[in-house]
Design goal:
Elements: H1 12-23, H2 30-43, H3 48-59, H4 66-77, E1 94-95, H5 137-146, E2 149-158, E3 163-164, H6 166-175, E4 185-192, E5 195-200, H7 209-222, E6 226-231, E7 234-237, H8 239-242, H9 247-257, H10 267-276, H11 278-284, E8 288-292, H12 302-314, E9 317-322, H13 335-340, E10 346-349, H14 353-360, H15 370-377
Parallel strand pairs: 1-7, 5-6, 5-8, 8-9, 9-10
Antiparallel strand pairs: 2-4, 3-4, 6-7
Length: about 375
Amino acid sequence: MSASRPLPRAASPFLGFGRLLRRFGFAVAPEQVAAFMQAVTLLGPRSMVDIHEAALATLAPQPDRRGEFEALFRAWFHGEEAVTIDGESEEETQVRDDGGAREQQGEELREEEGGELSSAIERLSLREFRRDGDTLVAFGRALPAALPVRRSFRTTRAKSRGAFDLRRSLREIVRADGDLPCPRLRRRQSVPRRLLLLIDVSGSMKIHTADYLKLAHAVVQGASQAEVLTFGTRLTRITPALRIREREAALARAASQVDDWDGGTRIGPTLLAFLSVPRFSAFARGAAVVILSDALERGDHAEMETAVRRLGQRAFRLSLCTPLAGDERFQPRTAALQAILPLLDDLKDGSSIAALTDFILSLGRPAPAAETIWRRAS
């Protein structure tokens, strides 16, 4: 295997600054770091002011953390004494960055009632998917017609129940010498909404992730607008890999891109990192969002509740599919599930491909809210 081509020496400080920001808890995507370096290239730069302005424009620090950003910029580029920022976390969520070194953490697993298999420890590994005879072709073909729809700004001709098309009607009047036997009508088109899958690849979901990736491949192949991201201790977008038509090749490509297979889980911080990256956050706007996770959040669930609330405000429909619901005795009694249940549109069984495909094909039909169903069942 040939060694990867090293970056130019001049690019190292800018790439290193992106890593520094992530180390201090800033959600910076690889695309933002690349845009930062491109902006610096376009500006010259003629002075440190140009680099500073490029960093602000592309790395987009949150307003309430602008002071921390400025301190880190001065420490990195001007050599000032490094500052210790209150609240610095050793558990920051990382977005996939091919240029970054893998980090190993040596903490012991922490046990928690209701989530013994759930841990925030990052353990990096790769996964290979075996060939099998399962097929999701029928699901992929039925998916476009089953998705919820939205009204597009584009219009199409209509024979009835449409708005009067004045421009085309006047054109027909001129062509017919003042006679218009049938007025021209148009109505807005209906197009399928985006389907966004967020797949938990932590250790507690190990026996389900292979099936989830097969389902995700069928979704991307069947829906014109679909996005798939994985999360554990990191956040990785795998949609381009799943666009490969052959399933085994697509899953192999996706497996090589995800570093945190079967490791720890930080659901709340990872979803907040997803929402803090403008490009990723836009995927959820007006979309049908399906989270495939057991929702066993370690420790305080406040960040998870905040992330789910913000995600629900952007999404058209927010659903959580958990394999735990495959047990007929399941009840959402953990503190995390109790907190997010009022924020969910659906809480469904995610224990099998059959259950998931049936649910996804029903997204276009209205259903009672998750809280209504589960409060009634308890």
